[in-house]
Amino acid sequence: MEGRVVIAARRGHPQEWAPMPGDLEIGALFPPLGEELGPYADLLAGEVLNAGAGNRDLRRLVPGNVHNQDFAEGLHSSDIDIVSPLHRIPVKDGFFDAILCNAVLEHVSNPEEVMTEFRRVCRPGGVLYLCVPFMQPEHKDPNDYQRYTLDGLTLLTERHGFVLQERGAVHNVYTTLGWIAREWLTSADTYGYRVLRRLALPWLAHKSRSSTHQVHSLASAYRVVAVRSDD
Ligand SMILES: C[S@@+](CC[C@H](N)C(=O)[O-])C[C@H]1O[C@@H](n2cnc3c(N)ncnc32)[C@H](O)[C@@H]1O
């Protein structure tokens, strides 16, 4: 892990670019998305919108026909089928059977408009899988506007005509602490910080990938799964 730097994690902080000994890749804290989706992957069937896809291609993880969407300004892979902002997706009403929006809503300045658009492009009875950070350090992509509590995310979803099916915390407490500790311990390069980096970060990364211990109030992210109501 030593000396590696993740561009995405530092995108908003060019002044912090230099790698530090014991630096930890953010990706080392998170399980693969397939693992994170777990049983919810099967809900993503039919025509599926991968909203704000970034570099994350869902095609091998879900049964549906995936349409990767992102906007032109995004630093994403070339494998984008729909280039548009999230609040203006160029498909007819009710085109999608399911929408996955993972780690995106914190980056939009207009979440209400985006949710209105999700309702428009999702067919009645279609599924919305929405996952948004709670206790995560600022990470710009290209901006970072907000966090949601689970209650806030529930309200947002219901206000836009989706009926909640399930909701809960995502990731364990070590994921939260690992990312926060990384930001803190790479903010200076003193002897003490170097020692702490070497001791704490690999351990937190290991626990983040192996533990099931969740602390709801310290959740790294929250997720809701909802169904679009009839008109
Ligand atoms: C943190 S990445 C998440 C990528 C992917 N969903 C994942 O789970 O790894 C956020 C993505 O949202 C995109 N994005 C941010 N604001 C957007 C907007 N207004 N319209 C469309 N895409 C947007 C960014 O370009 C970026 O690819």
Q: Explain this structure to me?
A:
The chain is built from six helices and seven strands; from the N terminus they run ααββββαβαβααβ. The protein has a seven-stranded mixed β-sheet. Helices cover 27% and strands 21% of the residues. It folds into two domains: 1-30 and 173-213, no CATH class; 32-171 and 216-231, Rossmann fold (3-Layer(aba) Sandwich). The chain is elongated and about 60 Å long. The chain is an alpha/beta fold and 231 residues long. Bound molecules: S-adenosylmethionine. S-adenosylmethionine (SAM) binds at residues 52-54, 56, 70-71, 74, 76, 85-86, 102-104, 107-108, 141.
Calculate the terminal CA-CA distance, rounded to whole Å: 51 Å
Number of domains: 2
Name the CATH superfamily assignment of the largest domain. Answer: Vaccinia Virus protein VP39
Run of helices and strands: HHEEEEHEHEHHE
What labels would you give this structure?
2 domains, 231 residues, binds S-adenosylmethionine, 7 strands, disordered N terminus, Rossmann fold, alpha/beta
